[in-house]
Amino acid sequence: MDMALLVCCIAPALLSAVFVYFAGEAENLVDFWTLGYRLIEGKYKMLVNFIGGFMHFTVYMEFPCFTALSVCILVHHYELILRHFHDDLKTRNSSIKILKCHMFVNNYNNIVEKILILKDTLSTPLLAALLNGFFNLYLVLAFILQQEVSFAMIVELFVFAATGVVLLTSLTLCCSKIPDSMIKIKSTLAALIDRHQVNDLSVGREIRLLERMEKKEIIYLSACDMVYFRKEFLLSAFGTFLTYGLLIINMRKFEKI
């Protein structure tokens, strides 16, 4: 996480330097950043391009990446809570009599309630982040279809594409850890119930409590209940993007013919 934060902070300055290296003293860029004000000396033009590029990359790359990183850190803390609960459950897996079922049920219910609050809280931000990622990728696709793309534009398109891929990949992989952890807990509970239902008939009350835990539904984080974050979502998302990309490219070739 610290390395990701450092990369997010340094990347805009490095990319701005590369952008200035390829753009140089381009008049159209200088006019864009200065709102039409004319600069004469070349060093001032390069400085303006650097500052403008830095602000541009900060807004379009750093802020979305910071948002995704914040979401991933928050989700990671909840995933750690589930992991610790699962580890504690496995350590007490040898005997159900020493397992404090009431305590485990109450703890698990509290965890589930907090995850539901997390799901509702992150629903809209996750949708905004997904739309940002898809728009970046389709923007790159639209510019690539143009006949001529300058080196400075290639740097910008690379930033857009990398930002889109990072947003989609990081959010999907991170948010899918919560249901994965809940599935592991459910599997451990099922194995514990099966073992003691056969070997120990005197723990019927404890078995019923564990069955209530085992029957709880798996919680998937979602973007306004329109997209549920599972690892399979990456395949469908990038597959859809590539499919539409190929269709658009073929349509453009057909128009030229």
From TrEMBL:
The keyword Membrane applies. It comes from the Eukaryota. The keyword ATP-binding does not apply. Residues 1-17 form the signal peptide. The chain crosses the membrane at residues 50-75, 126-145, 151-174, 233-251. Keywords: Membrane, Signal, Transmembrane, Transmembrane helix. This is Gustatory receptor. It comes from Caerostris darwini.
